[in-house]
Amino acid sequence: MVNYTNRVMIALESAMRYEIAWPDRQQRALNSAHFAELGFPGCIGLVDCTLVKLSQLPRDDGETYFNRKSNYSMNVQAVLVVDAYRFCAIV
Question: Which of 44, 58, 62, 87 is most open to solvent, judged by the fewest CB atoms within 10 Å of its CB?
Fold first, then answer.
């Protein structure tokens, strides 16, 4: 599991310069209008997290994946692009 985590972190770090960015002015205006319609005035984006349940205890440091719901899981954070309904960042 540690090897996979390191590989994901390296990939995210290399993608940050090209893929993970603050929305430009036009995108912020579009997002703000969309979220205002949903009752969130002044909001330009949403971030949410969820626990993804693991099918088995990770071999290395497995106890660190034990969550408050008594499962083994990983926490995943996602950011959604409003107009395309696609993820622009997943951590």
Answer: 87
Residue 81, helix vs strand vs coil: strand
Quote the number of domains for the chain.
1
User: What are the tens digits of pLDDT across the range 32-86?
Assistant: 998 899 898 988 887 888 888 998 888 888 888 888 888 899 888 877 767 666 6
pTM of the model: 0.50
Q: Are 67 and 57 in contact (CB under 8 A)?
A: no
Per-residue tokens: 76: 């995943």
Residue with tokens 């349940």: 53
Could you tell me the residue range of the domain that residue 85 belongs to?
2-90
Structure tokens at 16: 């940050």
